[in-house]
Amino acid sequence: MNAFVLAGGQSARMGRDKALLELNGRPLIAHALEKLRSLGFSPQIVGSRPDLAEFAPVIPDVQPQAGPLGGIESALAASDVEQGLFLPVDLPWMPAEFLCWMVDRAAITHALATIPRLLGLFQPLCAIYNRALLSHTRAAIAAGDAKVIHAVDHAASATGLPIDIFDVEIIASAQSWEQCIPLYRWFENINTPADFGKAMLEQSARIH
Questions:
Q1: Residues near 86 by Cβ (< 8 Å), separated by ≥ 6?
Q2: In terms of Cα–Cα distance, which of 138, 132, 130 is closest to 69?
């Protein structure tokens, strides 16, 4: 399995580059890469961002206007193994222990997609995808449908491979992870200046 940080967004709501926002003295891109490295991966960054090459190798977007699905397509196209773990650059509260559990699960199931669901909502950008999805991501983008879940559903119908969707609440309740961050915040994106200000205040409170 390979690991990728999705960092190709335009940061429109933030008004400045999210990947380089500093939290606890380091940019968000460094936090995301560190989580993946702690699991033994040599992660790559997905997005047309040559300026981020100082942090890790960068895979340019094959189709820059295709959103996260385009990033997943680019990563799977550049991969030489069956599965890829994806982590958005703006999820600073995501525990590495959860990512490790998801990697172990996908290594057993070899599902087309391993997708968490929290509070009934799919979380398709922090997920694991099989390379069998690749041609279907291309077809979806060509058809003007850049919804990740739609591409996964079409691929499952075409290939017969299973989609592994699980409820994070159930999994977390059965584990002994140290949950210093509330479960509902694991998938909380930093999208706006208000989100970032809140994160900075919380980080300061932890330090002091």
A1: 3, 4, 6, 46, 71, 72, 75, 125, 126, 127, 128, 129
A2: 138
∠ CA 66-70-74 to the nearest 5 degrees?
150
In the predicted model, is pLDDT for residue 12 greater than 70? no
CA dist., res. 137 & res. 139, Å (int): 5
pLDDT tens-place string over residues 82-132: 999 999 999 999 999 999 999 999 999 999 999 999 999 999 999 999 999
Q: What domains appear along the chain, each with residue ranges and CATH number?
A: 2-207 (3.90.550.10)
Give the separation between CA 68 and CA 22, rounded to whole angstroms: 23
Contact 44, 79 (CB under 8 A): no
92, HSE (Cβ side, Cα atoms, 13 Å) = 22
- For residues 68, 134, 152, 192, the Cα torsion angle rounded to the nearest 10 degrees is -10
Rounded CA gap, 161 and 136, in Å? 13
